[in-house]
Fold this sequence. Notes:
The structure holds three protein chains of three kinds.
Chain A: E1 7-9, H1 14-24, E2 28-31, H2 37-42, E3 50-53, E4 63-66, E5 69-73, H3 78-82, H4 92-97, H5 104-109, H6 112-118, H7 124-132, E6 135-139, E7 144-148, E8 153-155, E9 158-159, E10 166-173, E11 178-186, E12 196-204, E13 210-218, E14 225-226, H8 228-234, H9 241-254, H10 265-289
Parallel strand pairs in A: 1-3, 2-3
Antiparallel strand pairs in A: 4-5, 5-10, 6-7, 6-10, 8-9, 11-12, 12-13, 13-14
Helix pairs in contact in A: 8-9, 9-10
Chain B: E1 2-7, E2 10-15, H1 22-29, E3 48-51, E4 54-57, E5 70-72, H2 85-92, H3 102-115, H4 121-127, H5 139-151
Parallel strand pairs in B: 1-5
Antiparallel strand pairs in B: 1-2, 3-4, 3-5
Helix pairs in contact in B: 2-5, 3-5
Chain C: H1 21-25, E1 41-47, E2 53-59, H2 61-65, E3 69-74, H3 75-80, E4 85-87, E5 93-95, E6 101-102, E7 108-114, H4 117-124, E8 128-133, H5 140-143, E9 161-168, H6 170-178, E10 182-193, E11 202-207, E12 214-218, H7 223-234, E13 241-244, H8 260-272, E14 276-279, H9 282-288, E15 291-303, E16 309-319, E17 349-356, E18 363-364, H10 373-391, H11 395-402, E19 411-412, E20 418-419, H12 424-435, H13 437-449, E21 453-462, E22 474-475, E23 478-479, E24 482-488, E25 494-498, H14 507-519, E26 526-529, H15 547-574, E27 581-584, E28 587-590, E29 593-599, H16 600-609, E30 620-625, E31 634-643, E32 650-660, H17 667-686, E33 691-692, E34 698-699, E35 718-721, H18 739-756, H19 770-779
Amino acid sequence: MFPAAFDYSAPATLDEALRLLHERGEDAKVLAGGQSLIPLLKLRFATPALVVDIGRIEGLDGIGRDDGTLHIRARTRHADVEKATELRGSLDVLLDAAPQISDPLIRNQGTVGGSLCHADPAGDWGAVMLALGAELEARTATASRRVPVTGLFDGPFATTLRPEELVTDVIIPMPTGLAGGTYLKLERKVGDFATVGVAVHVELSGDGRIGRAGIGLCAVGPTSLKATDAEKALVGQEPSDGIIAEAARLAAAHCQPVADQRGSVEYKRDVVRVFVQRGLHTAIDRARGGAA
Amino acid sequence: MNVNVTVNGARRSAEAEPRTLLVDFIRTTLGLTGTHIGCDTSSCGACTVLLDGRPVKSCTLLAAQADGRNLSTVEGLADGATLHPVQEAFHTEHGLQCGFCTPGMMMVAAALLEENPNPSEEEVRWAISGNICRCTGYMNIVKAIRRAAELGVEVHSEPVSAPAAGVA
Amino acid sequence: MAIAEQPALGGIGESVLRKEDARFIRGHGNYVDDIVLPRMLHMAILRSPYAHARIRSIDTAAAEALPGVVAVVTGALLEQHKLAWMPTLSGDTQAVLATDKVRFQGQEVACVVAESKYVAEDAVGLIDVDYEPLQAVVTPQQALSPDAPIIRTDKDATDNHIYHWEAGDKAATEAAFARAARVVSLSTFYPRCHPAPLETCGCVADLDPITGQATIYMTSQAPHAHRTLFALVAGLPEEKIRVISPDIGGGFGNKVPIYPGYVVATAASLLLGRPVKWIEDRTENLISTGFARDYHMTGELALDADNRFIGLRVSLLSDNGAFFSDAQPSKFRAGLFHIVTGSYDIPAAHIVADGAYTNKAPGGVAYRCSFRVTEASYLIERLVDTAAHELGVDSAALRMRNFIQPEAFPYRSATGFEYDSGDYPRAMRVALEALGYDDLRREQAEKRARGELMGIGVASFTEVVGAGKGRDYDIVGLRMFDSAELRVHPTGKAILKLGVRSQGQGHETTFAQIVAEELGIPAADVEVKEGDTDNTPYGLGTYASRSTPVGGAATAVISRKLRDKAKQIAAHLFEADAADIEFERGRFWVKGSPDQVKTIQEIAFAAYSNIPEGMEAGLEGVHYYDPPNMTFPFGTYLVVVEVDRGTGVVKVRRMVAVDDCGVRINPMIVEGQIHGGLTEGFGIAFMELITFDPEGNCIGSTFMDYLLPTAWETPRFETLATVTPSPHHPLGAKGVGESATVGSPAAYVNAVIDALAPHGVRNIDMPVTSDKVWAALRGAGVTE
């Protein structure tokens, strides 16, 4: 239960960190909060030659607005998202998801960026960011690019990021009109990974129809999944029990759960259906009830 | 590598391997055995300490990550002979049996009451949901924390949020 | 000497705050891993990844060459010292380190001793073992099938059967079933779970090569018994062995067995001449140390036309893992399961029990089970509820109808127990009223009409604790008496030394309260010592709720003996007759002159300075108590649940627990024990599970898979008490530590089944997880 030996570096600046990753990214691991990496190191499931601790770099955390988008800097702790109550009414799904991640102690230390890059198929932020249509800002020593979350996950615990890349921001488009959302998580106890996680974000057009619909699922596939069929079935529609039930059915059909200690394939699929249904009702009620 | 930490208000400096877990640094290198190890998957919270005032699992941190920061452990709760209200309340409300989870629970409680001086039962249960107890069934732990709130939380004399100079 | 204002005594019945808290709240507990000795080495264990395999070879060269490694110990090395196998507490043998075969995943194969625990773990990773996997036996049914691979080839076994045991009266039971109006049956599996105390097991073995003194600090619930076993196993002279059980971070039966790690650490210390520390990690604890339950049960209840229970038939199959290593009274192969008639007046019962070896970790009797009473209580309470549903009668009413009535005590059960005292109808009535049972049943009916799933579960347990009378109860031949040694100092303070050993139950306070009650010395002035075999009297330790029934009785008896001597001294001081001396709360006076008082403190001083001619000086003594009977605590637990039709998630809305453990020494501490047990019962009922895949891989070997409830899931408990004293116990007290773990799982499960019963659901085995509830609902056509 103790890590194997590794070299360690705590660069003081982002440029220094990117230089290190450029040189040694192949056998290095980035340490942000460590709440995903350190458990792996302790079990010796990860044995990097070098750990690059980005905890000393100034300015890598915080939540800010920038011209129609929300920027969550990569090293922002889950607990700090919990506290961003000003987002209630526009990005409910963020506020509903944050407190359900792991447990309060992990939330005090773990980071949004670290969690997303860890790419656990049961990771809550994956489902949320897919529902929100988020992008990541990924930087190398020489360049920078935007990676839509839809193109981030490459398999269980695998991303399309290159070893020399470091994620600096999560960028979320702010809703322009009425919006509502929620995050529903079935977990066996606090701290367990999700049995099923469903993120729902809905924006209503001026005429009350659904303008945008985002449904992200976690723990029911080899990666977090975007229930695109269900989303398409909602856009442009007048929200009704029937429309919602159909979207829920589509989302359930879309997911790819695996049977394990948490339940059978049929069980998980049905919980997706139930949660998408409940989540959409909540999201739409909130969107209707919120200020423009 | 050298790790410099302010522990319960006192500056400490010691050698550690990069892979040394903070909990082992605290227990073995610093000799503060009040912080305990109860699991190997970051699941139990027996190792909870305050890092810059925030309750964290010291088994899921490298000692290196605490370099230049403020660490509070159970040994620093009391002010000499004067118990912290949380300690007093755990005693009067029978909030401990075997005592193994107790330091972690009390550190979470101390931090909670700094932020939320009058938590509801639900808020207390939520705050300690990262800490496992096998003996008490949590009833008296919750009672103790709410009693500590009644007793009032004294402001700590050492800085709980400002990191030591020289660190970003 | 002036008579000081009588301080608060802290006698029996007072919720005295705990004396032991002082060190724990300051983080100054002294647990085994806190112990640091000069030149101390650290040991780590290499464990088998296979459930069943032959060992072809072990290559330790790379491990031995790692800087910081002092020694690598294998089974071959231990074999040279005849230490490769050790006796178990159930009369079997267990491998210390595997020699030719491994028999469960996680079994100890080799040990590294190094300068630091990090280096020790590094070296463990460098040991190369060549295994030849064999077919694994994963269920006891599989184990007992004719073509099963033989597990215990070390004993030239021809099958995997361990024991066959029966209790009760077969003929009378058959007759009862023959004339029954109705028979209700239930097959249920009590799954493998684990005590999982928050502190794992470990030791620091310190053998002084010059003096030959062996000091072993260990997580032990029974230090004296362990010391004797060390003497027998390791061949060390018993007088040279000192076992010190310092502060223990929870036991729950996990710290009763002797684990290979203790033995190898001791052997390593002997060989190396330096202290060796071994602390297991959580995975090791869950995968290899004494698990609990894993018990297949089929129960049949025979009823007459008036819904009276007339017979009970039970067949049991126990999965004991690869070695029969349980700590249980040697005469009872199935522990005290034959308490299974429970709180009910059932005139005939017959139990047949068989045990089997499997390729899993050894154990079975643990986790606050009172020696298999958890299993028995679960079966009968689930069976009674099943009967209530089949008969269409109220489950509380069916119990009331069949309770052993208060006038029937002492009550001889159909399986030979003599219940000391009980008032089951009273506990039930108190519980029903506290819950508002009738109102809730009305609410349930309304909710059912709307399709909502609400359930009320009842369990009325009687359990049996306080092992026990030496003639009937022994562990590896050591009779289960217990002891108390009390000395009163000249200044009137006292020291009490015990053969039991608390792991959080508050003995430093509660046992002082007994002395305070009997001798009048304030509890604050009574120092209580446990756990060090060098300076405590011999006892069998703390488990199976025996401390108060046996150790507490010993304490009361010796306190009374000293009180009698004190009376003699008082008589001498008053120049009166001992028969005329009155005593109350630490004050002695001559009958008729209550204003002329001598305090116990004055008597104490006189014991050393002014004793009558011919009397021995001092005020001290030791008593070894042989209990005349067990004690029978009981209670009624009521649980209310709501079930989510869409997800199968169960929410416990209320939990009312009425417990009767006779006279309560410290109500606050008793209540704390109940809270803890109700939480363990909750965990067992809803989430705790160790299971295995067909290859014998253990699922549930970390806290990611072996789930323990947090403060968020755990319900709030409403606890009440009735008091029905034990007639044979000197204080009228019974044991209580395990009552809640014994009685509550059935209450929780009964509540869920009650919620689902209208849809034809009859049983769900524990843990009752949301997916199982969902499956039961969907199977009955219920959906959201």
